[in-house]
Amino acid sequence: MTADELKRLAAARALEEVRDGMIVGLGTGSTARHFVELLGERVRAGLSVTGIPTSEATRADAERCGVPLGDVDAVVRLDLTVDGADEIDPELRLIKGGGGALLREKVIASASNRMIVIADESKWVKTLGAFALPIEVVPFGIAATGAAVTQALRVCGAAGPFALRQTRDGHAFVTDGGHWILDARLGRIDHPERLAASLNAIPGVVEHGLFLDLATAVILAGADGIRFVERRGRRAEGALA
Ligand SMILES: O=C(CO)[C@H](O)[C@H](O)COP(=O)(O)O
């Protein structure tokens, strides 16, 4: 099976968690897009849900698939968010933001009673950090913010180079919120909580791709089938080694 087929399998399993009347956060990326498409099929078959998209790209997908959308500015709490991830560790800590939607994804996940992450098994890692950590920053004062990020990474034992994310035509990639992204190639992140706190303390940093204590479950699709991993205590139950 291809990675894309595995992503669709994970998305299909997540659909089983959706109930009539739910307000559902719609993640961003190729795995989340499968979920939106499958949700659209269920809506056409009579399911009633209100979707809250985490990006303009997902909004367009949801509209194309006929998923009814709510007003994010009027929603206080969501029942469930289903989203993809770039890396997932055994404590269900995540790196997200490969698609550049980390800020809205985190806002929506934080306001959700449950966050289910859907992924093919290649996203499961023992230690976070092989995937470059996205750090969303305001363009204003970028040199000073960059220096503060360098210092934060060093203090947290995660020193590594970072680069401004660019579009194919060489311009700075601009997020839906009008910010830029620094992608930090750290190799491994031994202390994600410490690094998250240090980055959060930098005024020019809007958000970062470390999603800690947010995912309540992960649906991993692999060659051996689907694994539903739930986070009950510190370490997830049913986790891979
Ligand atoms: O965080 C994200 C977007 O900001 C995505 O969920 C993450 O990049 C995974 O993407 P994909 O499902 O395409 O592998």
Automatic annotation (TrEMBL):
Pathway: Carbohydrate degradation; pentose phosphate pathway; D-ribose 5-phosphate from D-ribulose 5-phosphate (non-oxidative stage): step 1/1. GO terms for biological process: pentose-phosphate shunt, non-oxidative branch. GO terms for molecular function: ribose-5-phosphate isomerase activity. Keywords: Isomerase. The keyword Isomerase applies. Belongs to the ribose 5-phosphate isomerase family. This is ribose-5-phosphate isomerase. It comes from Platysternon megacephalum. The lineage of its organism: Eukaryota, Metazoa, Chordata, Craniata, Vertebrata.
